[in-house]
Amino acid sequence: MITIVVGTNRKNSVSRQVADYYKSILDNKGATSQVVDLVDLPGDFPTSALYEENGNNSDFNTIREKVQSAEKLVFVVPEYNGSFPGVLKAFIDGLKYPEGLRDKKSALIGLSSGVQGGVFAMSHLTDIFNYLGMHVLALKPKLAGIEQNFSEGKVTNNLYNQLLNDQAEKLISF
Amino acid sequence: MITIVVGTNRKNSVSRQVADYYKSILDNKGATSQVVDLVDLPGDFPTSALYEENGNNSDFNTIREKVQSAEKLVFVVPEYNGSFPGVLKAFIDGLKYPEGLRDKKSALIGLSSGVQGGVFAMSHLTDIFNYLGMHVLALKPKLAGIEQNFSEGKVTNNLYNQLLNDQAEKLISF
Amino acid sequence: MITIVVGTNRKNSVSRQVADYYKSILDNKGATSQVVDLVDLPGDFPTSALYEENGNNSDFNTIREKVQSAEKLVFVVPEYNGSFPGVLKAFIDGLKYPEGLRDKKSALIGLSSGVQGGVFAMSHLTDIFNYLGMHVLALKPKLAGIEQNFSEGKVTNNLYNQLLNDQAEKLISF
Amino acid sequence: MITIVVGTNRKNSVSRQVADYYKSILDNKGATSQVVDLVDLPGDFPTSALYEENGNNSDFNTIREKVQSAEKLVFVVPEYNGSFPGVLKAFIDGLKYPEGLRDKKSALIGLSSGVQGGVFAMSHLTDIFNYLGMHVLALKPKLAGIEQNFSEGKVTNNLYNQLLNDQAEKLISF
Fold it and tell me: Rounded to two decimals, what is the model's pTM?
């Protein structure tokens, strides 16, 4: 089972749409996957699911279990303020430690409205994921200008599609 | 006015104690400062103060105003999962953009129980702060093994004290 | 005196042309500057000017002295293999330590043929320069697609020119 | 074949000794490996093997071929000025592009006299290697205080040995 994480809790995010699209790519290649959208996190998780409350919020636990039980993970990460959304890192801070992500394999996709494509988001996450013992595929597509390259549920840019398909195949055999 | 930000919402954090200690250093040098502790953030701010709700949570706004109105900022940042706390970045994601941090000057201090001293936390934050147009002092003390080097409200390690005092002086004249 | 460093030893580099252009910006603002081009490094400096040979190569010393004696520095850095040129870092490895760059102030400009604009080159250099005690301006223009935006010795992109002028003014008052 | 790269051209480096020790670990696990020491690079390679001279220096080519022909790579990297040695990056700048490192698998080990253990060296290299399409194992041992933890050709610190052995096993099955 591959779990695809929507890396923001924004409602109706483009990241969610890209995650659904990525699931269709994995479906086509015969790999089973599910989407976890951080929009479903309980709103008060910073005070009800972290630190001394780690593991005590059952709604939070339902979501984190879909991440912790996966063998492989995909993170669709929009660029917020030059890096990943804080909520994504706060979610990671609420995982079981150290077994939450250790020895899993992951693929990262960056999104941005602007030209950077989430390049720092992916670099910073690679530092964090490697620190936690999770492997990260070298190929991390940066989907800059996502609004101009996504329409009706599909990535419309040929290069982006090539990169996403290449990455999905590498993840399956990772 | 210098605002010192406690970079976690953990209750009774060591970071808070280090922030109070840093305030006493600034006091001794004649610089006016205040401490803002992210423990005071409303627990549900990820759903009530970000994105389309940006600016709509008055409790959140009270805290962010102490940051946005400062000319200089100090961030006391514990290492969580190899980087900064997600809650700190989520707080940054709730600031006014782009004027929230632009052209301010900042000093970063990293804390850790382990040996890294928050080295990635500070590097990642520097990427983010520079992206947002805020300057960061080169000297970023890394207080590794903080529990063994802090007692009764004071940093007890001579090197750490030297670094914190040097940094405070540089910040005042930055 | 501001020293502008051409961050590659490639002959007839675009970086050199951008450095000369940057000098004209500083000239117009009344700031005195000089250009140092790493193409002038002795070809064998990795064996004649580093480690136990540090300080022993007079040709190398002539160049490094223009860097070490400056109060402020500008680095024009092309993207090579996703970061800065190795030769630039090898040059830095041959500076006097720790006084070579400590407490200086610097401005970074990234160049690339592709779309990244040297974003990692600048982030990695910021880590290194801050480690060495040199301050780095938050604003680091990323001149992506430089070949399409530079002609007859001048940057032709209006946004790029705005950023370079803003940065130059900030550096002068840094 | 696994190629172990000594990431500096310093003579008689500790990195070389650690590379030889790592080879003995791989030998014990039945994996074939060879050590490439950058001390063997021709001293003038920055002017004779890069850019328009790429591929034209036969001594340089002999060394790079041992790297380019390997399926898996180990990099033993000392911390110089808060990151990797510039000479290592300059060597990378002289590889064939893009096929030089693409799709290979790698393991990184950081060394330092001080307390950081080359943490930035490994983070920066991960950015670069991933950019070039080479996978990097999540586990990157940081051998801080190497002089106190290495004696007579052997790492003497039990934790370090555990990490190196774990990494070597992961690399073999990567």
Answer: 0.98
